[in-house]
Amino acid sequence: MHRWVKERNVTVRDTRCVYPKSLQAQPVTGVKQELLTCGPPLELPSFYMTPSHRQVVFEGDSLPFQCMASYIDQDMQVLWYQDGRIVETDESQGIFVEKNMIHNCSLIA
Fold this sequence. Notes:
The chain is mainly beta. The chain has 1 helix and 6 strands, in the order H-E-E-E-E-E-E. The chain has one helix spanning 2-7; strands at 47-50, 66-70, 81-82, 85-86, 99-102, 105-108. The protein has a 4-stranded antiparallel beta sheet with strand order 1-2-6-5, with no helix packed on it. It is elongated. Belongs to the G-protein coupled receptor 2 family. Adhesion G-protein coupled receptor (ADGR) subfamily.
Protein backbone atom coordinates (compact mmCIF):
# COMPACT_ATOMS: atom_id res chain seq x y z
CA MET A 1 0.00 0.00 0.00
CA HIS A 2 2.77 2.45 0.87
CA ARG A 3 4.42 1.79 -2.50
CA TRP A 4 1.11 2.22 -4.33
CA VAL A 5 0.50 5.60 -2.62
CA LYS A 6 4.00 6.84 -3.51
CA GLU A 7 3.94 5.56 -7.10
CA ARG A 8 0.62 7.25 -7.84
CA ASN A 9 1.40 10.40 -5.84
CA VAL A 10 -1.78 9.94 -3.77
CA THR A 11 -2.41 12.29 -0.86
CA VAL A 12 -3.60 10.45 2.25
CA ARG A 13 -5.11 12.59 5.00
CA ASP A 14 -6.58 11.48 8.29
CA THR A 15 -7.04 7.88 7.12
CA ARG A 16 -6.82 5.39 9.97
CA CYS A 17 -6.51 1.63 10.20
CA VAL A 18 -9.49 -0.50 11.07
CA TYR A 19 -7.90 -3.90 10.58
CA PRO A 20 -6.06 -5.66 12.13
CA LYS A 21 -7.19 -4.71 15.63
CA SER A 22 -3.60 -4.21 16.77
CA LEU A 23 -3.36 -1.21 14.38
CA GLN A 24 -6.88 0.11 14.89
CA ALA A 25 -7.16 3.94 14.90
CA GLN A 26 -3.51 4.45 13.93
CA PRO A 27 -2.84 6.77 10.96
CA VAL A 28 -2.22 4.62 7.86
CA THR A 29 0.74 6.73 6.81
CA GLY A 30 2.48 6.12 10.15
CA VAL A 31 2.24 2.32 10.12
CA LYS A 32 5.29 0.33 9.06
CA GLN A 33 4.75 -1.38 5.72
CA GLU A 34 5.52 -4.86 7.09
CA LEU A 35 2.66 -4.51 9.60
CA LEU A 36 0.06 -3.92 6.88
CA THR A 37 -0.97 -7.52 6.29
CA CYS A 38 -4.27 -9.28 5.84
CA GLY A 39 -3.41 -12.70 7.18
CA PRO A 40 -5.96 -15.03 8.76
CA PRO A 41 -7.94 -15.21 10.90
CA LEU A 42 -10.02 -12.34 9.59
CA GLU A 43 -11.24 -9.99 12.29
CA LEU A 44 -13.51 -7.98 10.02
CA PRO A 45 -17.08 -7.42 11.18
CA SER A 46 -19.17 -9.82 9.16
CA PHE A 47 -22.72 -9.06 10.25
CA TYR A 48 -24.77 -6.08 11.46
CA MET A 49 -28.49 -5.88 12.11
CA THR A 50 -30.60 -2.86 13.02
CA PRO A 51 -32.46 -2.35 15.18
CA SER A 52 -30.25 -4.42 17.46
CA HIS A 53 -32.49 -4.18 20.54
CA ARG A 54 -36.08 -5.06 21.30
CA GLN A 55 -38.56 -2.55 19.92
CA VAL A 56 -42.05 -1.59 21.11
CA VAL A 57 -44.41 -1.07 18.19
CA PHE A 58 -48.14 -0.75 17.82
CA GLU A 59 -50.41 -2.17 15.16
CA GLY A 60 -50.03 -0.17 11.98
CA ASP A 61 -46.56 1.13 12.88
CA SER A 62 -43.71 0.70 10.44
CA LEU A 63 -40.57 -0.99 11.76
CA PRO A 64 -37.74 -1.30 9.25
CA PHE A 65 -35.09 -3.98 9.76
CA GLN A 66 -31.75 -3.87 8.05
CA CYS A 67 -29.09 -6.55 7.88
CA MET A 68 -25.63 -6.02 6.42
CA ALA A 69 -23.20 -8.89 5.93
CA SER A 70 -19.65 -8.77 4.59
CA TYR A 71 -19.50 -10.20 1.10
CA ILE A 72 -17.83 -13.59 0.98
CA ASP A 73 -18.49 -14.99 -2.48
CA GLN A 74 -21.04 -15.00 -5.30
CA ASP A 75 -23.03 -17.88 -3.80
CA MET A 76 -23.66 -16.09 -0.49
CA GLN A 77 -27.28 -15.26 0.28
CA VAL A 78 -28.84 -13.23 3.08
CA LEU A 79 -32.48 -14.10 3.75
CA TRP A 80 -35.11 -13.07 6.30
CA TYR A 81 -36.99 -15.87 8.06
CA GLN A 82 -40.06 -15.66 10.29
CA ASP A 83 -41.45 -18.77 11.98
CA GLY A 84 -39.29 -20.98 9.73
CA ARG A 85 -40.49 -19.39 6.46
CA ILE A 86 -38.60 -17.09 4.13
CA VAL A 87 -39.99 -13.55 4.27
CA GLU A 88 -40.70 -12.17 0.81
CA THR A 89 -42.19 -8.92 -0.45
CA ASP A 90 -45.95 -8.81 0.14
CA GLU A 91 -47.26 -5.32 -0.62
CA SER A 92 -50.73 -6.17 0.72
CA GLN A 93 -49.13 -6.86 4.13
CA GLY A 94 -46.82 -3.84 3.89
CA ILE A 95 -43.74 -6.08 3.64
CA PHE A 96 -40.99 -4.97 1.27
CA VAL A 97 -37.76 -6.96 1.00
CA GLU A 98 -34.92 -5.20 -0.82
CA LYS A 99 -31.54 -6.78 -1.58
CA ASN A 100 -28.53 -4.76 -2.72
CA MET A 101 -24.80 -5.16 -3.15
CA ILE A 102 -22.90 -2.16 -1.82
CA HIS A 103 -19.16 -2.24 -2.47
CA ASN A 104 -18.19 -5.48 -0.70
CA CYS A 105 -21.31 -5.97 1.45
CA SER A 106 -24.63 -7.66 0.86
CA LEU A 107 -27.46 -5.51 2.21
CA ILE A 108 -30.99 -6.72 2.89
CA ALA A 109 -33.73 -4.47 4.25
